[in-house]
Amino acid sequence: QRGERFADISLAARDRIARVGADFVQDGHVILVHGWSRVVASLLTLASQTKHISVICLEGRPDAAGIKAAKFYDNNGIPTKVVLDSAMGFIMESVDMVLVGAEGVVENGGIVNKLGTYGLAICAKEHGVPFYVAAESYKFARLYPLHQQDLPPMGGLPRIDFVDTACWQATGRKGNDTDGGIPGRVELSTRVEINNPACDFTPAKFITLLFTDLGVLTTSAVSDELIRLYQ
To answer: Are 49 and 43 in contact (CB under 8 A)?
Structure first.
């Protein structure tokens, strides 16, 4: 019963967020998204019912979250493009807004979200592109991080495959025992440390507005809402 009730709350919150956020998406808008977020998907699907929009998905390494998002938008009839994560600066001048979800919204109005969100927000601000966050109020957390190191441990994928995809066409390799059957896989020695955090922290100063089931909030309003939620 508790699980069913949470599912109902989550769906209702997602619907409210979609309604309040869809008004900010204008006809002809190109929206850049990062990671896979059900609430972002709901918002853009609703907006696409009355407006011609297109979506650009960052690839979302290492779990291909952006590829999963791109499949969803394409299946729902929304023109979709995928770019590498490292192309966010290159593509930013071609978009009208950035829209991301959040794993958590913290007391100072910042967010914790998929790794790369912080860099994306900095890039958007530098280009004068509005950076919006869609998040359910149950993700509001009584945390006050100031730096990346202030985040609690969240883990990351224990293993990452580094693959030189450019060699596929050049060599026609099919993979062998030394590369684990993955063509172009580049092996690193155990002396090389791999740092693969799951999330990063984006400070409030980079966020334009938050779309929530409590309404459209400025980052400064988050602490007031947290006080009400935890009274």
So the answer is: no
